[in-house]
Amino acid sequence: MLRCASHHLEMTEDFSEKNLDHRTEAFINDQVIPNILNSISVLHQCEALLPEAEDIGLVDRLVSAIASNACKEQLTSSLSRLEHNRAPTETTSNWWGKSLPILCLEFFHRVMSAAKSKGLKQETTTNILIDYAHKSLEGFVIVRDDVDSESSKKRRLVVETIVGLLPSRPVPIILLSGLLKTAATSSASMACRADLERRIGLQLDQAIVEDVLVPANHNASNYPLYDTDSMSRILSAYLNLDEEVDESDDDDDSPRSPKLKNLIFKVSKLLDSYLSEIAQDLNLAPSKFVALAELLPDHARVVTDGLYRAVDIFLKVHPNIKESERYRLCKTIDCQKLSQEACTHAAQNERLPVQMAVQVLYFEQIRLRNAMNGGHEQFFFGSSNFPYPQRSGSGPGSGAISPRDNYASVRRENRELKLEVARMRMRLTDLEKDHVTMKQELVKSNPANRMLRSFTRKLGKLGFLFRMREVKPRVSGGGLENRFLFQRRRRHSIS
Fold first, then answer.
1. What is the DSSP-derived secondary structure letter of residue 296?
2. Which parts form a coiled-coil structure per UniProt (predicted)?
3. CA-based angle 83:85:87, to the nearest 5?
4. What's the Rg (C-alpha) of the chain?
């Protein structure tokens, strides 16, 4: 304040030796510029002294001093860690950055831009941006204000500024998620949102459901709760990355490609969980749900139980949708990839169309038949072309899974298969026993069968009397042939 006052009052050396202008300038050079915290504090005071502080060049000097001293501090800390063989800690890397959130947005942007240009590490930049975002955006609390309100404009400027300062390397997805949600509710620019969505898409395999549940910027009650278009763009960014890796893998061996191709299975589970969450929204259109469900390629879902659960929730929450929409929703489910528990549930689910129930029963019958015939490769999915796609470098047996892990997985699947076959054999034995028991009870309970048994017993008694009469040998005629002629005829008649 004295430095700005001396400039305003022209208290320079031209009027008096060691005037106020000279004394305040010496104090700033000796006590403020060399110290990072003092520079940040004085720069914060300059916010109330504009435009005088800008006119005398004090703001530029302080910004440059903070950036230079921060990079020197970074170098000193690195050398100290190397000398003592210690791991880097947050307190030694950006302790001074904890004070930066007191600055206004403009000064903060100028300091961070200068520090980045002078070589500030990206990890340090990320940590500082996280602290500033938490303190300036109320901990990423989602607030829906009028787009033209002052608070909404302030949050929009903060988000756009922080996004412009993000380093090129991946940053924690929790920071990206918080910024994207705030950008959505404050109507940030499309360029800002597109950058955030692209960054989240590049590391979507690290996200959880809460990270991608972007709220829609609508206060009306008849609008959906979540912005499904944003999720669609995020997922498309990830799939485009996967396709680029596939193409590059054909030319050279990319060390990232096997990992990315296997992480798509994790992304499929994330998407199915996301669909289960948004399915509970009464205002969600079936077309939006179907569009998201069909974004993933066929090879991404090994099991479709998660998608079936999401569809079932949607049908339960939206009981009055058209039959064509109901059928379109269920068409996204590959019945061949449903587990046995899901097939049992689907066969008894009255919310599903009849066509799907018949399809589920058909594939279940094929699966049981293959299990009884020992069809190991077709037992679970009902198709020998599954569960893994025939693409270069993907699926088990590729570079993504070691032979040892692959062998252990095959052994585990064989054990599960043997147990399932044993259970099926036990069920078949029980069914045969029940069949025999029911047949016996049916015979006992039928009146015609009782009359037949009574008639048979009476014929047996008559036969016994005839045998008693024919015990005495006959001398005449036919001998033994005539003696047993009637017995043969009786036996023939009964048989």
1. S
2. 407-441
3. 125
4. 41
Place of tokens 């949600």: 181
List CB contacts of 464: < 8 A, sequence separation 6 or more.
none
Q: Of the given ranges (145-149, 377-381, 388-392), which has the lowest mean pLDDT?
A: 388-392
Q: What are phi and psi of 472, to 5 degrees?
A: -70, 135
* Phi, psi of 391, rounded to the nearest 5 degrees: -120, 155
Nearest to 331 by CA among 286, 299, 371, 393: 286
Compute how many other C-beta atoms are within 10 angstroms of the C-beta atom of residue 1.
13
Give residue for tokens 């179907």: 290
> Which amino acid, residue 215?
P
Total residue count of the chain as it appears in this document? 495
215 phi/psi in degrees, rounded to 5: -70, 150
d(CA 6, CA 9): 5
Q: How far apart are CA 132 and CA 108, in angstroms?
A: 9
Q: Which residues pair with 226 in a beta bridge?
A: 215
Average pLDDT value for the chain:
78
- Are 393 and 251 in contact, with CB atoms under 8 Å apart? no
Can you tell me whether residue 215 is helix, strand or coil? strand
Rounded to the nearest 5 degrees, what angle is found at the Cα of 435, between the Cα atoms of 432 and 436?
90
Which of 289-298, 377-386, 408-417 is predicted with the least confidence, judged by mean pLDDT? 377-386
pLDDT 10s digits, 82-119 = 655 555 554 455 788 899 999 999 999 999 999 999 99
Give the DSSP letter of residue 214: P
CA gap 31, 38 in Å, rounded? 8
The amino acid at 483: R
* CA distance linking residue 232 with residue 288, whole number of Å: 10
Q: Which stretch, 73-82, 228-237, 239-248, has highest mean pLDDT? A: 228-237
CB 182 within 8 A of CB 155: yes
Q: In the block, which residue shows the tokens 């549930």?
A: 345
Note the pLDDT of residue 448: 57
User: How many Å apart are CA 17 and CA 15, to the nearest integer?
Assistant: 7
User: What are the tens digits of pLDDT across the range 439-477?
Assistant: 676 666 655 555 556 655 655 555 555 454 444 444 444
